[in-house]
Amino acid sequence: MALHLIKYVPLSVLRGLATVCACIANTFHLGIYRSIWANLTLINPEMSDEQKTKLSKKILKNQLLSIVDTLKSWAMPPAWSVKKISKVHRLSILEAGFAHPNGMLLVVPHLGTWEMMNPWINSWGSPTIMYKPIKQPALNNFVLASRERTKSTLVPTDATGVKAVFKALKNGEFSVILPDHVPDLSGGVVVPFFGIETLSSTLTSKLAQKTHCALVGLSCIRTQTGDYEVFCYELDDPQLYDKDIHVATAALNRAVQSIIEPHFEHYMWGYRRFRETPLIDNPYPLSIDELTLLAKQLHARTQSKDNKG
Q: Distance (Å, rounded) from C-alpha 254 to C-alpha 55?
């Protein structure tokens, strides 16, 4: 199968192809470029077009580089990915999390190349991780083959999987969760993220409420030399465990934002994160002027609630 041949393609060649694709997408303003531009407009409507153009190009290139690095990581033995990690910042935070009696939930946003970090995390133990099968059978089998080379226990993204993660945390073990996707309506609440009220997943908050596990943020960022550095974040805001799910989820979004901001250009801004807001269900088809006006209205709405609170 063609995907397995990626192991024989030098990483420099894959990254070169990603750079060329990024140039094409930037030049012709393809869908992913427009999504990045829209997200930048939403989170900062005062940003100039020149700033957005410059930043969008950097973000798109980083996102495509992360994709090819992910494919290479899946194709290679776990040891290959582990060797690409040259430095770990604030490792003591992660070590404290592993020692927590109530287990640990690793909060990993769609930032940098999180897949590159998976084999390294598995060197610490056997996490229970929820996995949603990919619709394309060939790609799904490719990813599963990669997962099976690690110590991870894969569970479905349904009630059965949630129970398995809950049980693992109760046993003092650990799990990994990506908290910043757009959930189903039944699995989320509308709270601010980068100043925009938007539908946000409640799963992480509910697990934290029930288990009082340690919460540790992680990111895996590619450096200018082409290797990777892991950053650990202590997520210790008491509101992360609040019984009010809106308060807890809002605190989680603030924590995720604090993880993203130091490496803003490496976040997956090509993802349409703000598909559900109080004023419009899907802002992405709007024109730039309409989007800018909406963004100002949404930020004003959030600011007004903050002032009242």
A: 22
Integer angstrom CA distances of residue 2 from 6, 10, 157, 301: 7, 15, 28, 49
Q: Where are the alpha helices (DSSP H) in 76-133?
A: 78-84, 91-98, 114-122
pLDDT tens figures, 194-227: 999 999 999 999 999 999 999 999 999 999 999 9
Identify the DSSP state of 172.
Answer: T
Give me the residues paired with residue 104 across strands: 174, 214
With the CA atoms of 168, 172, 176 and 178 taken in that order, what torsion angle do they form, in degrees rounded to the nearest 10?
90
Residue percentage of the chain with pLDDT more than 70: 99
Residue 280: count of CB within 10 angstroms of its CB: 17
10-residue block means of pLDDT along the chain (309 residues)? 88 97 94 96 97 97 98 96 98 98 98 96 94 92 90 93 97 97 96 98 98 98 97 98 98 98 98 96 95 97 87
With b for 16 or more beta-carbon neighbours within 10 A and e for fewer, the 235-252 pattern comes to beeeebbbeeeebbbbbb
